[in-house]
């Protein structure tokens, strides 16, 4: 199963919260710190109209959630059969 990609920063509370939700439901994901990866930072800016909005979460089907609430993230995980 292809993993979810979570683009974020270490200091972002929303990133910490999103990772906690994924870990709580044992959903595998790849963490990408945009402060340490220029290509990832450019991708996040491209997806978010020039902004470094994090977390930017990319699913295997290509869909993206940006700064989702807990309920929005859990709903997406359920829709994708991940929880």
How is the secondary structure organized here?
Blueprint: E1 4-8, H1 13-24, E2 29-33, H2 38-47, E3 56-58, E4 64-66, H3 70-79
Q: Which secondary-structure class do the elements indicate? A: alpha+beta
Q: Work out the radius of gyration.
A: 12 Å
Q: Per CATH, what is the topology?
A: Glutaredoxin
Order of helices and strands: EHEHEEH
> Residue ranges: pLDDT <50 for 5 or more in a row?
none
Tell me the number of strands.
4
Order of strands, main sheet, comes to: 2-1-3-4
The averaged pLDDT comes out at 95
What would CATH call the class? Alpha Beta
Q: Can you count the helices?
A: 3
The N- to C-terminal Cα distance equals 14 Å
Proportion of residues in extended strands: 15-25%
Write a brief caption for the model.
By secondary structure, the protein is an alpha+beta fold. It has three helices and four strands; from the N terminus they run βαβαββα. The model has no long low-confidence stretch (mean pLDDT about 95).
